[in-house]
Structures are given as C-alpha cells and as structure tokens.
Amino acid sequence: MVTLQVLTTDDWPLWRALRLAALADAPHAFKVRSADWDRGEEQRWRARLELPGAYHLAAQVGGRGVGMVSGLPGTADGSGRTGRTAELRSLWVSPEVRGRRVGDRLITAVEDWARTSRAELLKLAVLPGNEPALALYRRHGFVASAEPGALLPGGAGRELVMVKALAASKCS
Ligand SMILES: CC(C)(COP(=O)(O)OP(=O)(O)OC[C@H]1O[C@@H](n2cnc3c(N)ncnc32)[C@H](O)[C@@H]1OP(=O)(O)O)[C@@H](O)C(=O)NCCC(=O)NCCS
Predict the structure, then answer these.
(1) Residue 138: CB within 6 Å of ligand 1?
(2) Would residue 18 count as lying in a domain?
(3) Is the pTM of the predicted complex or chain greater than 0.85?
(4) What is the arrangement of strands in the sheet containing 2-6, beginning at the earlier edge strand?
(5) What's the domain count of the chain?
(6) Residue 106 alpha carbon, nearest atom of ligand 1
(7) Ligand 1 midpoint to CA 42 (Å)
C-alpha cells in the first residue's frame, strides 16, 4: 500500500534520496540536472525543507520512498491578478508504482494544502512534451497560463506555466 508522509526538516535524507532518484529517472521532466544537486551538502537539502510555509510530501511503500511533491507559497502569479498563489513543484512517481494514482493523490494533497493556506491559485511549470504530466495536470483542471515560463537551456523553448483557480474555502 502506498502511504503519504508530510516531511519535516529532519527528513532531508529521504528528500535527497527521492530528488536524486527523480532527476536520474526523468531528466526530460526537470529543468535542473542531477549534477546540480548531487554534491549538495546536508545544509542545502535542509534549506529546501525549511522554506517558511512550504509543504513537502513523500509517497512510500513499506518505508521506501516511491514519490514526492512540494507545495510552495507564492505571492504573485505574473498575470497581474491579486490574490495569493501557491506553487506545485518537484512531482515525481517511481516507475514501479506509476499508473496507480499516486500522482493523483500527491496533486490532490498539494491542492488541499494550498486551499488551507488560503491560496486562490495553484500554479506549476512543466516542460513542453512531457505528455504524461500534461495529461495528468489537465485532468486535474490545470490550464495553460499566458505567463511566459522560464527559458530552457540550449534554445529549447520555455517551460509551460499551468494554473488552477482554487474554489474559495467554506467558512463556518
Ligand atoms: C507524471 C507522473 C507524476 C504521473 O504519476 P502516476 O502516479 O503514474 O499518475 P497517476 O497514476 O495518478 O495518473 C496516471 C495519469 O498520468 C497520465 N499518464 C501516465 N502515463 C502516460 C503516458 N504514457 N502518456 C500520457 N499520459 C500518461 C495520464 O493522465 C494518466 O491518467 P489516465 O490513467 O486516466 O490516462 C509520473 O509519470 C512521473 O513521475 N513522471 C516523471 C516525472 C514527471 O514528469 N514529473 C512532472 C514534472 S512537471
């Protein structure tokens, strides 16, 4: 059974293992490269988990990491609209458990976290041509944004920015 665990700073070794596995498995899906991270010291890994207001999840099977995602708080969405924006980052699911809705669960968990954080918009960036991720994000209601994504190295175009408006939470 796949379980989801919210990570704290002390979980940085699990975060590091997952991130390096993701970069090695799916270099086509991420702008950064393993070489950018694999010499990182403990403090560098801890720093990501220490970002104020951030949310980090690991998917595990029998205590072994098989997936990850982050939710990061943001303040601007680049579209000129006011309101709070949160960002979904670093989604990865190990090939051994793909197609079993682990990606679904990780995205839904970040959406729930973003709503609880009173974000009005959830955004993400995806590399052009990453069809499995694009299909999954579209199924979750993300749409392409007019915001230009970051330029990719070697003239390979830009990241595609996708956004999802979050329904206002009900107040009692
Ligand atoms: C994208 C990813 C997270 C999906 O994880 P997952 O756990 O397999 O996803 P789920 O089981 O929840 O959902 C599967 C959905 O993914 C999409 N998908 C999976 N494989 C696909 C493929 N080969 N082609 C197109 N869509 C595909 C479909 O939308 C599918 O939904 P469907 O079964 O209704 O067609 C996983 O493939 C992955 O980690 N890829 C490498 C890293 C990556 O691309 N991360 C995103 C960075 S922006």
Answers:
(1) no
(2) yes
(3) yes
(4) 2-6, 55-61, 64-74, 85-93, 121-126, 158-165, 143-151
(5) 1
(6) 12
(7) 30
